[in-house]
Amino acid sequence: MSFINRWATQRNILYLIWFIAVLGTLVSLYFSEVLFYWPCVLCWYQRVALYPLTVIIPIALLKKDYKVYMYIFALNVIGTLVSIYHNLIYYDIIQGTLGTCISGVSCTTKYVELFGFVSIPLLALAGFMAINILLIVYSTVTACLLRINTFLMIYSYSYMAMPSPILILLAILLPPAAVYMVVGLTVHFWINIALTLLGYVPGIIHAFWILFTF
Description:
By secondary structure, the protein is mostly helical. The protein is 74% helix and 2% strand. The chain has 2 domains: 155 residues, Bromodomain-like (Up-down Bundle); 49 residues, no CATH class.
């Protein structure tokens, strides 16, 4: 039983993440395959982290796998770390010391710089960070909705377990009638008649025990 449609909320966030992943994939392919802006080694590593999301997320949406954020997060963290390192090299904050970009296309090649500073590595980092933020929102929403659903379920079961006001009134005024309404002509009914005849109050106590037990 689900009181709040948790999957509907999670699905919308996954669609946003998938949109960013697809957009990043298409833009990167446009740069390399149409404009012939050849990617460097670090760009390839980031593609390895990003491209699988375009397939993993649709599968999760079809299977309603709300735990998919763990797989997405693992890939996206790798892409984010590589992207941060790439930007530090690109903007000459550090020197490439991990043996990358020593062959092939340089990691500091300036293909595009919108507004004088928005480069391809910065766009990639923005995409990874946007996915990270959405993943944090996703996991937070998942945890909150799970707690809300659990609380509502417990409350609902407690409410359903409560006897009706009519039965409570009968248990006070005519205990055997209340017991009969719950268990019928069983041994508990005859026990209640005996307890009611012996002092009435024991019959009420027994009736209330029946109401809240059966």
